[in-house]
Amino acid sequence: MKLSEKILKLRKQNGLSQEELAEKLNVSRQAVSRWELGSALPDASNILQLSKLFSVTADYLLNDDYDSDHDVPAVKQTEHSAKSAVKKMASICAVAFGLLGNFILYIISRFIEVRAFFPISYQDEYGQTWYSEESRIVRSYWHFIDAYELELLAALFWGLLIAGSLLLYCEYKDSKEQNKL
Fold first, then answer.
1. Which residues touch 60 (CB under 8 Å, ≥6 apart)?
2. What is the pLDDT of residues 102-128, one digit of tens each?
3. Model's pTM, two decimal places?
4. What's the CATH superfamily of 3-71?
5. Chain centre to alpha carbon of residue 82
């Protein structure tokens, strides 16, 4: 896309008339018209003002190979870095919530006693094996989860921990590949 087409497109996207754009750039309306027709080119200071006004890079305006500002390599890299940072922060939050939730459940389970049933087997004098359960009072993470039916909550915390860890690992691998390029 040519510079003239880009100026026209950006002006229309921003809802500006040629007259309004000319006022903002402190040039004549005829100058803007010539730029859009391709019969004249804006000077360097006007290119800079156009890039600031329309929030695009000067590279995008000057390079005919770029159809959007997102095609500029520096912009692509910045966008990738921003997405990577967001993914990394989300992963860290997931790991932190998973760890914190499991830690809180563990601490609570160490203070609250629950009755747990343990299977036992014994043989009678005839060699017959019998099975029964013996109950004891314990302070255990797993028995606490079972006694208070917190399996879903524990699974959620473990899932956050595992998913966050996997996302962090994938993000780490992606960053290593990006650094190789």
1. 6, 51, 66, 68, 69, 71, 72, 75
2. 999 999 999 999 988 878 787 878 888
3. 0.54
4. lambda repressor-like DNA-binding domains (1.10.260.40)
5. 8
